[in-house]
């Protein structure tokens, strides 16, 4: 089927490529004409403005917006909706806050425009491995887009099937789900990222302890100089902690156990934060997920004010003088 | 080669079976004669006492102890060492504290007996999938046992090879490593379990938030009734959080999304605790791993004293009267 | 000076009483006529409707709203503002979210009505000890109300003066501050409560460890049966952890070391949650404050879904069967 | 009565001074002859060796060791015990691990020497304010030293008495308790310090959020430029979070709100770590106390290995390139 794509960065561009390879057609638009040209070469139909883009789409239109979450996505959805008509569908495949989806879907309902939110995991590997997709929206709109999702998803592959799933929605094992009404897709994707932070931090702490197993704080007979690349590798086979993140860890450590070139400064994106906000709203204790987020905040601080205040108190009650950092 | 096995529970018994299947021979002993009989039927040579067991082993002996960590293992190692001689090897394959390995290896050194500690991951799946092994001990002793480890390990299987490992120790991708001197094997296994706790808790919190996404605390337009079995399944394909623990989660939720039959009481074993002790000794901030451990402690409490004290303070300063639980 | 008070619960009623005792006058209103009657007896002028209340206030009016944060406060402020005129002042002394203050102040600005937010700490003890107040709003409006704040505040009392404060705003040591523009008062009060949660949890955990110092998990020679009431009492004198919360703890434990009558169910109010949201918005790692909040969430759960999922995974990889809770 | 003091640093020296002021006598020894001379001038009897020290003490002897916990205290106690006789008492007033007390008391029992452990809080303020003491040991030995403890303790002072303590051990409100057998004193002191870490961290986080309330991450209308010195000061009067640590915070911020001169590097001492070990041994979830400890560990790291590993994973799955720190 035909899909329109706005935003031809790494994610948007590769999604179009994966669709074209499987026989779908695509109309594409981006602020950057070179990005459009590259996909035209790959077989897509290029547009040079939003108006042109909408015009070139067959009715009922399906326009996928793949832009940075926030103001850019917001204004694009608004502009698109002004050009589209009843029964068209706008798909937000970015990392939007699910509350924004709920609001937008409500606003577009009056015009009869469908709004579908797609949480997409897969990153730079999606073109080859396929994209894991969590989808929110009206059943009719989601069902109509099924050929697109079926192509983009990884498929069953050689991953063993889960026993006990007989008779359940077969899309899940293909790698996509219709999670619920508008917002549900990005909600599930948000939690996915929250979990991701927790998993990453668990590995990071474990390897940190392994790394410091030769610390001079330890009695000499209990110091170990471990090969962390081999540890990561061995856990990939038969251990309880095997995972894709561990595979990536093993790759990173294979050639660079000291992790040279990384500064220790770690960014976070909205989903990790929103996950905590959601947990608090639901009164669910999200201890590990919060800790993981906070460690990233902390990684970006130098000479934290909170730590200075601890030293000031220590000086106050005990006359302690901290060493210079 | 020949291996002696003391302790024929699920782990010890299956290790022997996997060895026998691959052409090795085994002498086996257990307090329970039926356990011995079952393995004799599978092809092992049975012993009816520790003395008999030692006598039946060819020189230099290799005796694997697969018993509960703590006093039982301690006294068995002691008794065994009294019956063995220089150049024999005692292998502790249980979940011993690595500090105990260091001590025991030192004690046995005087007698010329080798001591090898093997941290073993794989649980009930090991017979089929193989065991992931982290090994500590003298190079000579570990090398001599290599045929045993090679058989027990999972092997490369169909897991993609890690790029950049060319020229590195090939045992790691077979599923076993010689981590370092005595104690290093159990140290690495200990951290493995510490990470395991953190990973599990990350998933548990994420699914807890998904589960409560239909909470009445939320505004109606932002409530979702999600199919958690499908969420777990979809993440298995192409997502960043795919892992073996997620596979198990998907299996558990496929047929029993409410997790009926589980009380919410969660045990912990020594490794999770020792991991935190090790982190503290090294001054490594193990925030997520500690939180995961504490959540298990908390799962086993009713009407926690600490919580009662919070209520007592709240009554003191604000006259707040908590509802009955 | 004259103050109007809407909401004559424990807080509102006692604030009026403290004002009357010091020679101020008050117009009072409450949905409950008995609450009005009680304060009329104490010397206030009663009103039987919001209209009557506004009418009885001298120009420029000062109306203090002391109602539950949320819809009730919102609608009352809205109704009041419809009856008031330029240069009047509305004071929100409840536990409103500071973002609501910012919004309301902006809305009222068009009408020329001042909006002052007062975060008030002191609880049931305020009538005797005075109220610690954190105030947000325009300088003119806050200054005009100074006689009210001066009466309500605790005053210097016998608390030693902080060295180095010479030349600084003397109101702080009287027990009230003008923290900044509208919203700043409730913002500071919000953080106050966030800290309060952290402090309480620190004591709660410490006493929990003391309480379990006779645990059978410990080696007999390291078990202690401690008198927690005496411990709390001794720390009140000369120790680093002395505080008002410790005073309350000592009182609670003096007569009831087992804390009988408390169920272990602990409520939380908005401020603790908003504190975490604010920390996340600022990217400040609020590890302890979050943990304290989560422990309260957890105190209200039975057979947590997250814990059940841990058990399900443990069963999956290790065949572990958890005991019934 | 007469007390011997070994170790005349800030703590030991001031303890002797407070005793001399109240009419007691003291024999003193220190490796540093100048420290001895200073106290001789203050009225103590000086010793120039451990032998001399023991000789100058009247029978039954009472020798207080006030030295750094660990090897120095250990060897001094050992040397002392070799010179003393049955019914003499050794007091360890330092910050020893309570398990060491249990062991030492057992070892000395054979010789009939009493061993009393005294956890002492009060720091640089003790000479003036008195010392809060938590004491472990045999009843007879502790009772015999009562005149010393009574002098060192702060006394009731002007701190209000706790209602409901009628008929309970009056020593607690004087500022000292006999907590239990040997080890109990340092155990209680250890938890005191654990709580101290938690309280400090709660304040530190709260002030950190206040400090960043003017962050550019926030919408302009919700930014506040707060006077943190005034906030600390106002909370000292009538608020729920008033405490001695808050008094110290107010002092620190009064003249130096930016906390210039503090590097952000925060040390920790043994007690905070032992508290966590004890909690784990008891299976008590010490979430806040652990977080507080870990924040100190983290304050001392630059470019943490764990954070680098997070970046390596992020690069692996998403191609993310972290900025330089």
UniProtKB/TrEMBL annotation, chains A, B, C, D:
Gene3D superfamilies per record: N-(1-d-carboxylethyl)-l-norvaline Dehydrogenase, domain 2 (1.10.1040.10), NAD(P)-binding Rossmann-like Domain (3.40.50.720)
Keywords: Gluconate utilization, Oxidoreductase
Residue ranges of domain 6-phosphogluconate dehydrogenase C-terminal in the record: 185-321
Keyword Protein biosynthesis attached: no
PANTHER family hit by this protein: 6-PHOSPHOGLUCONATE DEHYDROGENASE
Pathway(s) where this gene product acts: Carbohydrate degradation; pentose phosphate pathway
SUPFAM superfamilies, per database record: 6-phosphogluconate dehydrogenase C-terminal domain-like, NAD(P)-binding Rossmann-fold domains
Pfam families, per the entry: 6PGD (PF00393), NAD_binding_2 (PF03446)
InterPro entries for this protein: 6-PGluconate_DH-like_C_sf, 6DGDH_YqeC, 6PGD_dom2, 6PGDH_C, 6PGDH_NADP-bd, NAD(P)-bd_dom_sf, Pgluconate_DH
UniProt protein name: 6-phosphogluconate dehydrogenase, NAD(+)-dependent, decarboxylating
Organism expressing this protein natively: Methylobacterium trifolii
Similarity field: Belongs to the 6-phosphogluconate dehydrogenase family.
């Amino acid at each position: 089927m035909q899909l329109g794509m706005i935003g031809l960065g790494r994610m948007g561009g590769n999604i179009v490529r994966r669709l074209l390879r499987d026989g779908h057609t695509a109309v594409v638009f981006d602020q950057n004409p070179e990005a459009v040209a590259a996909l035209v070469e790959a077989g897509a139909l290029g547009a040079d403005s939003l108006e042109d883009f909408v015009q070139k789409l067959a009715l009922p239109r399906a326009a996928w917006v793949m832009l940075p979450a926030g103001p850019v996505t917001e204004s694009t959805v608004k502009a698109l909706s002004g050009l589209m008509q009843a029964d068209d569908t706008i798909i937000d495949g970015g990392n939007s806050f699910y509350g924004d989806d709920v609001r937008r879907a409500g606003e577009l309902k009056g015009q009869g425009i469908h709004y579908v939110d797609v949480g997409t995991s897969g990153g730079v590997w999606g073109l080859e491995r396929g994209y894991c997709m969590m989808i929110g929206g009206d059943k009719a709109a989601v069902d109509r887009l099924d050929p697109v999702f079926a192509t983009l998803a990884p498929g069953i592959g050689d991953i063993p099937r889960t026993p006990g799933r007989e008779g359940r929605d077969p899309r899940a094992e293909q790698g996509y789900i219709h999670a619920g009404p508008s917002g549900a897709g990005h909600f599930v994707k948000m939690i996915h990222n929250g979990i991701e932070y927790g998993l990453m931090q668990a590995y990071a702490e474990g390897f940190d302890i392994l790394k410091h197993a030769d610390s001079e704080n330890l009695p000499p007979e209990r110091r170990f100089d471990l090969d962390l690349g081999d540890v990561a590798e061995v856990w990939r086979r038969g251990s309880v902690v095997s995972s894709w993140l561990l595979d990536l860890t093993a790759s990173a450590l294979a050639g660079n156990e000291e992790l040279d070139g990384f500064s220790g400064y770690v960014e976070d994106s909205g989903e990790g934060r929103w996950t905590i906000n959601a947990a608090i709203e639901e009164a669910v204790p999200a201890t590990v997920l919060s800790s993981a987020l906070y460690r990233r905040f902390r990684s970006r601080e130098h000479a934290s004010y909170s730590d200075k205040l601890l030293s000031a108190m220590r000086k106050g009650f005990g006359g302690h003088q901290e060493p210079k950092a």
